[in-house]
Each structure stands twice: as C-alpha cells, then as structure tokens.
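Write out the bound-state structure for zinc ion.
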Amino acid sequence: MPAPSSCASNDSGRSFFDHPRPAPSTPSSRSARSTPEGLVIPPIPPTNDPLVVTLDTHGHRVFLRVSDAPLQVDSSHVRRLVQFNAAPVPKCANCAELAIDCSFVEAGIPCPPCAILGIPDCDWTNPYWFAQNLRHCRDAYIRHERDSLVTAVREDHLAPSLFEREFERVQVWFYASAQGAITRFLLNARATRDLAVRGYGALANASTDVAHLLRFLAIATESRMHPLTLQIVANRVQTIIASMMS
Ligand SMILES: [Zn+2]
Ligand SMILES: [Zn+2]
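---
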C-alpha cells in the first residue's frame, strides 16, 4: 500500500487526530494482577466493517450511519479525512484515460477536467472510492492507537481491564469524524453534480444562433466533452431548426 499523501505522513495514523484518550493510569492505580497476556487484540479491519456503501430500496448508493454524534463538517478532523487521498499522485480514471493532469481538491468534488468536460463519474465523487479511502484512514489510525494501548498494558501503564474501554473510545472518536466526513462528502457531491451539463444546457437554451451552437459542438467534440453535454446542445439546435421550419 503506497504511503498516504497527506493524512498520515509516516503512516502511523497518529497525525489524523489529537489523542482521544486521557492520560494513562498512574502505576498506583494499576491492578497488581494485570498482565498483558490476557488481552484480546481486536482485528483491523474490524469484522462487519461499517464503512461500506450499500443500496437502499430505491437502488441509491448510501453509506451506513457510523456515529450518532458526528463532528461538524467544518471540523479540522473532518477536513483532514475528506482531503486525504491514499494515492501518492492522485489521478482519476478519466484523466488517466485521457492522459491529462488531474487534481484532487477534496472528496465529493470532481477534478477540474471532469468538471468542465461534464464527465459525471469522476473517481473523487464516487462513494465506493470514498469509503475505501476512509477505511484506509481508519485502519492506519486505529492500528496505531491499538498498538499504543497494547504497549501501555505491557509496560504496566494501563490496566488490562481498561484496554477494551480505551479501544472503544478510540473507535468512537474516529467514527464521529468519519460520519462528519461522509456528510461533507455528500454535500460536496450534491453541490457539484452535473454543473457542466446544466451550465452548458442553460447557455444553449439562451442562444438562438445555430451556427454558433454548431461551432461549439465541433469544438466540444474535439475536446472530448461528455456525450451528455453534447446531446443537450444538439437537442437545442434541433429545437431551433424545428421552430424555424414551422
Ligand atoms: Zn481527473
Ligand atoms: Zn476526474
């Protein structure tokens, strides 16, 4: 797995968030019978992973709700999650196919080429891609925290009986951020969806100049604009011609 580009510079997962736990128990509060051997180490990724996309009864892609106490969408922790991209050099599949430069702003916002060419399926707006990205962040962060807890127990800084509670706290903290990130992703995606298609459609509808629209179609085709946009402008041309003939 390549090193994350921004969320965890050393892949420790620690750079996501501040430490969610209180200071370890003092030695005097430890149980004399505490030993690390009895710990049950939680698996990473967890079984029954909640960070997945499913289909609702209407066939729409939806995220499972992972927290009832999400962080605000403008939280710095949420921002780090939506601005993280696991790829060392993020490039969406469309830009790769077109052999052009891509750029990643944050999850839910298409890259500039996809946005202006009206390509509706930029990877950065794909919920499956985002869920995978979140899982990558979660696994790095929770693995680091889990290993720190295990070390704390082994070095007698944390009572084994508190391990489970502390590990739960780590998870609650992460999923509160993840839920905020999912909301921000959905808001971003909704705000930017079909901007080019709607924009060019509005411009075409405002024009009655067939020659101008045909020139646009020629350039747009040459520029590999998405067929959806081309079709909208072509439909406008047909409508104008039909009105001239009637
Ligand atoms: Zn791209
Ligand atoms: Zn793209």
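---
Residues 1-6, 8-12, 21-35 have pLDDT under 50 and may be disordered.
The longest strand covers residues 53-55.
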